[in-house]
């Protein structure tokens, strides 16, 4: 006797209808999902937003946007800083800036400072942060000592270093006293050494900020990951290379962005240590020192305003490019919650 197999039609659990096409009733198309109605913002909420954000917005417009607009306006005039601007020169100021070799040299110095800041401060700050992230005696004191130079005024830092690095200053005197007088140099005026002297000062002052920033990033890395890697036999440096540094990537990218923008706007240390004239001959001039020297000090405020606009445009372009190609995945992950793979 043969047993005849029968196929039991499959039922859709949502509709209890046959979905095998075996003669059952075809399920109806799903009903369209109604679009969520946008919640209306009450006038009370709008008033609260205006009261909270209004003062900050007014300050931003008054001290950021308005000066940029005014500088752009005066950049089209040959203006000495007093009276109405009536001598319209069009784009002549901007063309002069772009054709001036001194501005090209200052722009090159800013680029060198930006690159060297990343190369010098980054590894030093990472090593110090990894060291201070471990339990050791006197950890808090070491953190304070590293961070103190960052909070000291640039005027104090520049004055102290300029006195110490003069030809008859403390550094050359120390070298002579210990029998290394042959190493004494003109640290500030020698064009071959001045840019490196500046980088030592910048690194000494700003590495503390990078260390504190990296320490904050290290605090957000779960200890379970490093402990599991250690149990699996990974060495300390393997853990840092494969776990710590990739997870520290967003903090590193933010620090690099701040360092680059700060390098483009560097002024106070250079102006205090080298002054308006020595900086150009010593090879440490920047775009801002160029602006002050050829603008305010030369009595040509229209030209100085044009330099300020060019500096703003360069900084804005660099910031947008960095945002587009480097910070994009960090910001998208923060806004959408789909950060993806970090590195």
TrEMBL record:
Residues 1-35 are annotated as: Disordered. It is a multi-pass membrane protein. Gene3D superfamilies: MetI-like. The keyword Transport applies. Keywords: Cell membrane, Membrane, Transmembrane, Transmembrane helix, Transport. InterPro entries: ABC_transporter_permease (IPR051393), MetI-like (IPR000515), MetI-like_sf (IPR035906). The keyword Membrane applies. Pfam families: BPD_transp_1. The chain crosses the membrane at residues 47-74, 111-132, 144-164, 193-216, 254-274, 301-322. It is found in: Cell membrane. Residues 107-322 form the ABC transmembrane type-1 domain. Belongs to the binding-protein-dependent transport system permease family. This is Sugar ABC transporter permease.
């Amino acid at each position: 006797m043969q047993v005849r197999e029968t196929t039991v039609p499959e039922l859709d659990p949502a509709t209890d209808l046959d979905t095998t096409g075996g003669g059952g009733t075809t399920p109806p198309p799903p009903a369209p999902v109604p679009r969520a109605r946008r919640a209306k913002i009450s006038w009370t909420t709008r008033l609260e937003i205006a009261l909270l954000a209004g003062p900050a917005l007014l300050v931003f417009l008054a001290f950021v946007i308005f000066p940029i607009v005014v500088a752009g306006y005066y950049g089209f005039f040959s203006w000495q800083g007093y009276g109405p601007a009536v001598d319209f020169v069009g784009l002549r100021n901007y063309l002069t800036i772009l054709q001036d070799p001194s501005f090209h040299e200052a722009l090159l110095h800013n680029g060198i400072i930006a690159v060297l800041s990343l190369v010098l401060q980054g590894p030093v700050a990472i090593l110090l942060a990894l060291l201070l992230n471990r339990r050791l005696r006197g950890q808090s004191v070491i953190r304070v000592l590293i961070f103190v130079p960052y909070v000291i005024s640039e005027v104090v830092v520049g004055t102290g270093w300029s006195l110490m690095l003069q030809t008859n200053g403390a550094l050359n005197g120390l070298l002579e006293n210990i029998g290394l007088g042959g190493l004494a140099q003109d640290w500030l005026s020698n064009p071959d050494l001045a840019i490196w002297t500046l980088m030592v000062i910048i690194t000494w002052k700003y590495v503390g900020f990078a260390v504190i920033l990296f320490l904050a990033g290290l605090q957000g890395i779960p200890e379970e990951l490093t402990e599991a890697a250690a149990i699996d036999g990974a060495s300390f440096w393997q853990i840092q290379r494969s776990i710590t540094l990739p997870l520290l990537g967003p903090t590193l990218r933010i620090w690099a962005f701040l360092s680059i923008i700060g390098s483009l706007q560097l002024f106070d240390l250079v102006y205090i240590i080298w002054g308006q004239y020595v900086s150009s001959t010593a090879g440490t001039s920047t775009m801002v020192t160029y602006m002050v020297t050829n603008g305010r000090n030369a009595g040509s405020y229209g030209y100085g305003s044009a330099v300020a606009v060019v500096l703003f445009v360069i900084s804005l372009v660099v910031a947008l490019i960095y945002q587009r190609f480097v910070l994009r995945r960090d910001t998208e992950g923060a806004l959408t919650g789909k950060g993806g793979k970090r590195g």
